[in-house]
Amino acid sequence: MAEIKNTPTIQDEEVVALRNAFAHRARWLKLLLDEAKARGADWESIGRDAVRKCGRENGTRFKAEMKGPGLTDLPCFVGAKWARKVFEIEVLEENEDHYYMNFHHCPLVSGWQMEGVDGEELKCLCDIAMDGDRGVAEAIGADFVLGKTIADGDDVCELRFSRRKSEENN
């Protein structure tokens, strides 16, 4: 099992409060999925479908507010100013075609760790949470690639949104 590197460097009071809220949300997700599993339900499918649905709904709202066909406005919604501090986001590329960023901290991982989650379960919960970003990408006409993740023991989470060229005229 890889050692998780998830120590935040920004300790602003409001940022810490937001991180705690995200960690609490992560704990809710884990406990809900545990209950689904205990009742014999396909907990992973339930989690993925629900989180992706939320992402698509958010993405539909974002797309309606975005000014153009490209991804230029996406940072107003995904990785917004407050989120850049909470997740300690490093923006690598931000233009019409790409929105690439690395997260250096994940409060969701912290929340799952509070519940004693590690290993494959931690990776699975992380990937389920990323279904929200996959849903956003679907709704706005972008592709989403998740590279390295903190849940897998990497130093960062690599999130990459790329505009689909077929969406150029939509």
User: How many structurally independent domains?
Assistant: 1
Briefly note the structural class of the backbone: alpha+beta
Largest sheet: 4 strands, antiparallel
Helix-residue proportion: 40-55%
Mean pLDDT: 94
Number of helices: 5
Shape: globular
The CATH architecture can be named as 2-Layer Sandwich
Short description:
50% of the residues lie in helices and 14% in strands. It has 170 residues and is of the alpha+beta class.
Task: Tell me what you see in this structure.
- The protein has 170 residues and is of the alpha+beta class.
- It has one domain (13-167): Trafficking protein particle complex subunit 3 (Muramoyl-pentapeptide Carboxypeptidase, domain 2, 2-Layer Sandwich), CATH 3.30.1380.
- Helix content is 50%, strand content 14%.
- The protein has a four-stranded antiparallel beta sheet with strand order 1-2-4-3.
- Helix 1 (13-38) packs across helix 2 (43-65).
- The longest helix is centred in the first third of the chain and has 26 residues, at 13-38.
List the helices and strands and how they pair.
Layout: H1 13-38, H2 43-65, H3 81-86, E1 89-94, E2 98-103, H4 107-114, H5 119-140, E3 142-146, E4 157-163
Antiparallel strand pairs: 1-2, 2-4, 3-4
Descriptive terms for the model:
170 residues, alpha+beta, Muramoyl-pentapeptide Carboxypeptidase, domain 2, four-stranded antiparallel β-sheet, 5 helices, 4 strands, 50% helix, globular
